[in-house]
Structure formats: C-alpha cells, structure tokens
Amino acid sequence: MLHINRLKRTFNNNQAGFQNINFSVDKGEIIGILGTSGCGKSTLLRVLSGLDPNYEGKISSKDGNDNIGMMFQEPRLLPWLSVKDNISFGLEKEERKSNKYQTYLDLVGLSGFDQHYPKDLSGGMAQRTAIARALITEPEVLLLDEPFSALDAFTKMQLQDLLLSIWQKKQTTMLLVTHDIDEALYLCDRIFILKGQPGEVFAEVAVEKPKPRTRGDAYLSKQKAHILNLLNVEKKAAGDEQ
Amino acid sequence: MISETQKWKAGERATAAKLLSPKGLFKKGRGIVLGSILPVVLLIAWELAAKAGLLAPHLLPAPSVILEKIMSMYRDGSLFGHVSITLTRVFLGFAIGTGAAVVVGAVVGYAKTAEQLLDPLFQAVRSIPSLAWVPLFILWMGIGEPSKISLIAVGVFFPVYLNIVAGIQGVDRKLIEVGKIYQLSPFQLTKRIILPAALPSFITGMRSGLGLGWMFVVAAELMGASEGLGYLLVVGQNTYSPDTVIASILLFAVLGKVTDSVLKWIEYRSLKWQDSISNQA
Ligand SMILES: Nc1ncnc2c1ncn2[C@@H]1O[C@H](COP(=O)(O)OP(=O)(O)O)[C@@H](O)[C@H]1O
Ligand SMILES: [Mg+2]
Question: Which of A14, A19, A115, B25 is close enough to A8 for a disulfide, judged by CB 3.0 to 4.6 Å?
Fold first, then answer.
C-alpha cells in the first residue's frame, strides 16, 4: 500500500527533523506514530502529504495513487465557506455542486448544519467537518496530525469512536500521529515510537486485539505500561506529555 | 453531544432571521432614535437661536433658510446638475483608483520580486500629501475633467492598494496548505483561498478609499470647476452666502454617508462569515 524507505528530512544541520524511517503500511491498517514533541512527527506527515518536497529517500504507493488526505491539529476550515462548501472543498468543480457532501455530513453526525459557517461551530463540530472534508475525496491514505489533541476529553473520545466507525465502514488506511498513548492503543494496529533529534523509529508495538476495543482493558493497560517503559529507557527528555 | 448542544443554540441565535425578527427591528429602531436625539435638539436650538436674532444671519443662517436654499436649487434644476457631476467624478475616480490598486496590489502582494521592485516607490510616492499633486495635474491635463478624476483616483489608489497588499500577505499559511493538499494550481489557490481571505481587508481599503475620494473631489472642484458641489462652495464664499456654503457641506455629508452605506451593505453581505462583534446580532 505505502512503502517508505530510508526517508529523511532534517533541519539545522541534522539537529531536527527525522531520518532513517522505514516502514510499510497495508491497506486498511491504522498506524500510530507516537513520540515526544519535536521529534519530527509533523515533519514526517508534511513530507508524506507532499507539503514538503525537500526530503531524501523513497515513498512509494502500490498503485501510484497520490490521493492523500490530511487532517491537522486545527480544523483549518475556510471561514468564508459554509460547512457544506468546506466539506466539498477538495472535489472537482462539477462534484462540488452536487450533493455528494450529504453522505459525509451525515457520516460525521452534522446533518442539518450544512449552511452554518465555521464561526458558529464548536471545536468538536469543526473537527468533524474537517474529517468529512478529508474523507470526501476518498483518499488512499488518511494522514492525521494530532487531530484530537486540542479537544476536551469527552469530545475527544466521541471523535475517536467516530473515526473508528468510519474505518469500519470504509477501511480507510490511516497514519495517526499522536502523543496520547491511550488514543494510539485504542485505534491503532501498530504503533511506531519515534525518538531523538532528529527522530528515528525506536520501537514498534503491535496491538493484537480486534477493534472496537474497550478503553483501559487489561491488555491495553499492559501495552501502555510497556510503551511508557520504552519511552523511559533512556533518561533523556523522553516520556509522554499526557 | 451534550457539551456541544449549547454551541448549536448559539449558532442558531446568530442567524440572519434574528435580524429581521420584530425584536431585531425594534432594537435597530431604538438605536436610530437614540442616535438622533442630540442632532435634533441641536437643530431646534440652532433654529430658535437664529430666529431670536442671537446668530448673525450673514455668518450662520437658520436651518430653515439652508433647507429653503436646497429646495430652491432643486426647483430650478441646478441641484441635480451639481450633485450628478460631483457623483460622476467621485465614481469614475473611485473606479479607476480601485481598479489600478487591485491589479498592482495583487501583483505586489503575490510576487516577492514585484514587491521589492515596486513597493519602495509606492511608499515614497504615498508620503507626498496628495493635494500637492493638484498643480501638477492641472499643468499636465488642464482644469478639465481628466485632472480632477486623476486626482481622485490617486487619492483612492493608496488606501486600497495598501489594504490589498496587507490582505494578501496576511493570508494564513495554514489555509494555503489546505489548498496545497488538494493540489490546487496557483490560479485556483488565488481564486479559492487567497482572494476570499483578503476580501475583508480589500473592503476596508475601499471604504477608506471612498472617504479620501470625497475629500479629493472637494479639492479638485475648489481648484477650478464650473459645476459641482465644490464649485458651489466657491460661489457661496465669493457671494457671501453662507446658506449656499452650508447647503453644499450638508450635501457632501449626505452623499458621503449614502455611498459609504452602500459599501457597508456590501461588506455586511459578503462578510457574514466573519467572526466579529458586529456579527454577533
Ligand atoms: N521548516 C522548518 N525549518 C526549520 N526547522 C523546522 C522546520 N519544521 C520543523 N522544524 C523543526 O523540526 C523539529 C521537529 O518538528 P515537528 O515535526 O513539528 O515535531 P513534532 O510534530 O514531532 O512535535 C522541531 O524542532 C522544529 O523546530
Ligand atoms: Mg507536531
């Protein structure tokens, strides 16, 4: 599906960014990328999304499809477009006028809000709109950069469940950057732990439990302890921010 | 959902239906009434003082006299001529100034090289008080319409230009990245993200440009004209008739206000999406 080979992007004389990243993602997988702040997670997603073309190494997708969706920490809605037009933003001109948006509006639970402007949305609703916008182009891979970290705990859990239900319906391949271990354990099939300046993959943790999972069940707690342990082996400024 | 319900209600509250509801109209009416108390009281006091002989009529005639002056100009048909020629000058100057500012501002705001090339020049030219252009324009183009309209256009150009450049350069890089994710071409990026994002700033520029346009039409018509409200000012001064002078000042005020209201209405219509105090209904 997506193969990444010796991928590298560094700044300030190799003092920041990431390097030596190798992994493959299978169709329908949800991959988590966990790591301390500043270890290059956002940079990695920017490279994969095509926003940053100055990288070394190789990115290949099986069918050469470059249809990639991206969600940021902030919703990044266009304030002058209604919810409907924001959702349709990535479509071609003719499709933008169609009512294709309706399916995705319903999917993210915003039915009836199509004419609202972003200023009238709560943080959670705005992020739902952003999810719909990212999905409507039916991307091969959806990249998510800490998409829920700015939300309150309750809304965050709702949106994690929403993402999961979408995955169950559409089997979208996802790459989820997060610094929330519980979130990664709840959603991901495999978790890469990034560490260092520039960041490198330090460990890979598989979460072998079918989704949906129960938050905080014994297996996940055990894995959480394992990850915390991994992050703390080196006495450097490692550790989860949560 | 619970945590979001409140916000939903807030969203409903902010809709335009509210503005048109009887309550909204009442609120608006109340604002108008409150705002007119002071002017009306002053007008009455002025009229009474003039009637009582407290004000010298050759310096400050009564409001009724001024109104009568306007009515008589209306009856003999000269009012329409003066108003329409002044409006035409402002309109043409405004259109030319805004058009030029859009083109130049878009290029300067968008292309770094153009900015380095042009911006210092414009900043330097801008620091010339624009009225200083008057003699030069008259030398170049005579006292006919071209020099007047050019002068107004120069006045309008700078605020519009500065605001467009600031608007384009101030577009949130994060929103531009959204466009890049969807692989928009530079043209589409400009049309679908940069221009809408710069629109509020552009309209602000147009409104201050229009204000300057009115200022400059007065200057242009004072310099030499045979028609127009500014010409009326000169006539009033030369014939010692303060009623004519005040009447044309009044007409300038009304026209300035009306044209600005048009822009304000356009602003309201096209910027409903903005999260600002004035949109809090
Ligand atoms: N365009 C850039 N130029 C210079 N340094 C950058 C740039 N982008 C990111 N960095 C640096 O790279 C490091 C990693 O950033 P980032 O990928 O945002 O980290 P993370 O998302 O893991 O917190 C940071 O130290 C940041 O300062
Ligand atoms: Mg980041």
Answer: A19
